[in-house]
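Risk register update: the risk of archive-format incompatibility is retired. Evidence:
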Amino acid sequence: MGPAIATQIILNSSLKNAWELYHFDTRLNKDIKAMGKWSLKKSGLMLKKYALYRKMLKRISPDIVLVPISQTTMGFVKDAPYIRLAKKAGAKVIVQLRGSDFKNWLSNSSQKVNDFVKKTLQSADGVIVLGENLKYLFSDYFPDDKIFVVPNGGNFTFPQVQKLKDQPLRILYFANFLRNKGFIYVLKAIAVLNKEKSLPSFELVASGAWDDEAYKQECMAFIDDNKMTNVVFPDKKSGEEKWKLFAQADIFTFCPIAPEGHPWVIVEAMSAGLPIISTNQGAIIESVIDGENGFIVEQANEQALADKLRLLLEDETLRLQMGKASKNRYLNYFTEEKMVENLNRVFNEILQE
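Archived output:
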């Protein structure tokens, strides 16, 4: 999951040369299927974590505490004590949102929940969002100079691969198979293209984890019904095998139909030098510039996605040109060094208050 990736990169980055970094693991879920489901066991674990967190604050007396916050009622209630306990311990508190559904959630929540969120955020000294176009999410809670933008960034190494002339072009989807990630529309777009005989040979390589058995069956049934033999599901990939999938790809597509933050897969695809087709969710449009390093298409529109995929499949020059633009954009804005530079700036500004 994105927050876990971000935490790992931050802890291992050069940020540790400028700051003493301490990590407190707030996770209650062992895997993606357990998310959003409450239990007495989780409640007990949560109380134990608060006690351990209080002891940690007393032991290390931090100058700054960075707390990633949820955009669901259950999740935010879990996060609130981490904010308030840190403030009580005398630390500067920065909250960070790694999504973009914050206002939608609150607009569909009770006044009691809204009041709770407002009161909790009053304990924070600032907030970090993942893109300039997401600053509006917190305009009701913080002044503009306390809303900071720190996009995701990381350094990735891809293996050298030999692409054979007769092998199919590869369209890569690399994300968890959640309904809001829009994978079914990728399949529908591929089905549209499979009806066209003049296209170069191609295949869809899709890798991720399923959290919904009904959705999995829906997708598999669609593949079977349309005899889509050019859809490949490699075993769940991580580490070197993951980067090999990116290195072997020719096109990357990720078309979520619900709010996103700044998806790591977009950063990884840019780093791999791939043309990207995505949708206007969260900060994606600050990474994928329509017509420059890929295309932004209408969400839940398989025909629009198929049209852009066709364009890239047929035009090798355009694929390579957009892939190069992706790589350049990544190097300029989304490396680990850029993220560390941004975090350093935020931390120092907060401490200078």
